[in-house]
Amino acid sequence: MLAIITVFSGCAVQKNYTLSSTHLNKSKFSYAKNEVKSTTRATYIFGLGSHSKGGLLNKAKEQLFERNTLNNDQSFVNLNVSWKMTYILPFIIANKCTVTADVVEVNKSQVALSTALAVR
């Protein structure tokens, strides 16, 4: 019974990384979208699987950019990467990568006012 419980038990490890954190001047920028995200997954059986860790991250970033097309006055800020690895002993590892970000845009009226004041 103990052997069966050990074989079918599992655990999970979660790690978070912040790639960029930005403090913006609120008069010049505003948040267009909060917490846009993309998630990719891979399962490895006996160490064999479809994507490496770097490949999962790149795929998640690609999907984030494709799903959230930015205008010329917009940018991603506060990028965060979250990893969750689930171990199902002793054979299977499930890896999940989530990339989140906020989208900000330039307040055109404030930029135009700043430019006009600088010209004077």
Percent range of helical residues:
25-40%
Name the strands of the widest sheet in spatial order. Answer: 1-3-4-2
Name the overall outline.
Answer: elongated
Please report which band the strand proportion falls in: under 5%, 5-15%, 15-25%, 25-35%, 35-45% or over 45%: over 45%
Which series of helices and strands comes N to C? Answer: HEEHEEH
Count of extended strands: 4
Which regions have little confidence, pLDDT < 50, spanning 5+ residues? 111-120
The helix/strand class is alpha+beta
Radius of gyration: 21 Å
Main sheet characteristics? 4 strands, antiparallel
CA(first)-CA(last) distance: 83 Å
Describe this structure in words.
The chain is 28% helix and 47% strand. It is an alpha+beta fold and 120 residues long. The chain has one domain (7-119). Strands 1-3-4-2 form a four-stranded antiparallel β-sheet.
